[in-house]
């Protein structure tokens, strides 16, 4: 049963056509409000602003370069400003230009070994890595010397791991047609990249004209610094995303998100009544915080836009009275009989 069917059934139980229409309309509006202020990474929900357009242009120029510094790049930004959405927009735009042939893939998690990373990426693309059989086992199998034979087991296993990493990187690079048409891995939360995968990147990817390119999203912290330091051979450019939205950008952002979600015009008009500026003040211009503030302000349709009805004031009056009495008592000067 769909949301509208469920709402219609409820309305039939408690009233006629008018009640049914009102219930369905109210339900649709509430769903639209949730979508407008949800934490989505849908590229269709992207609202351009000066800072994010600058980021996307920097990434476009990086993706079109082939020299040193072109293999790996990083978006380094404050949490909540939209790094994930930037990666999804980059993915969408890169793949749109290929007419269904994927050129980039978004990965929400980076904490995988080279072999597991290759298997995951190929699986998302509906393929099998060239160096693995259809059941996922190594093909051809890697021989490992049994333990106890001349004490060479550890060395053999280490060599096996290095060879597996090489094959995994080779399989990923084979997703590209050439270094002029590279394949892009877009890592979110890239600071979870394990040491063995970082080592595989350094050992098996060229510092220029690479068929496999990597874009990482990182927070501006010590973990990001350590990760980028370990990849210093690639001279990875850092694209900063740290500027918060201005009050004007916040209002524009809210209007566009509400229009995208299909909110009623009456809700959108309330933004011009000072609500957008209040939400900007509460959120500090950070999209993630803004979503939470706007969702709270617009929930319960009849009192959206942060305008409580009379019953809300009536319920709050006793608590406000008690609070006033406490503050009045706390603010009184202390009277005593001591003489100094």
The strands making up the biggest β-sheet line up spatially as: 2-3-4-1-5
Biggest sheet details: 5 strands, parallel
For this structure, what is the CATH homologous superfamily of the domain at 45-138 and 164-241? P-loop containing nucleotide triphosphate hydrolases
Number of strands: 5
**Radius of gyration over all CA atoms, rounded:** 28 Å
CATH topology of the domain at 45-138 and 164-241: Rossmann fold
Q: What's the order of the H and E elements? A: HHHEHEHHEHEHEHHHHH
Low-pLDDT residue spans: 1-14, 19-24, 140-153, 300-317, 325-340
What is the highest CATH level, the class of the domain at 45-138 and 164-241? Alpha Beta
Ends distance: 80 Å
Strand content range: 5-15%
CATH architecture assignment name of the domain at 45-138 and 164-241: 3-Layer(aba) Sandwich
Proportion in helices: 40-55%
| Average pLDDT level | 79
What structural class do helix, strand and pairing data support? alpha/beta
Q: Helical segment tally?
A: 13
Principal-axes geometry comes out as elongated
Record keyword descriptors for this entry.
340 residues, alpha/beta, Rossmann fold, five-stranded parallel sheet, 5 strands, elongated, disordered N terminus, disordered C terminus
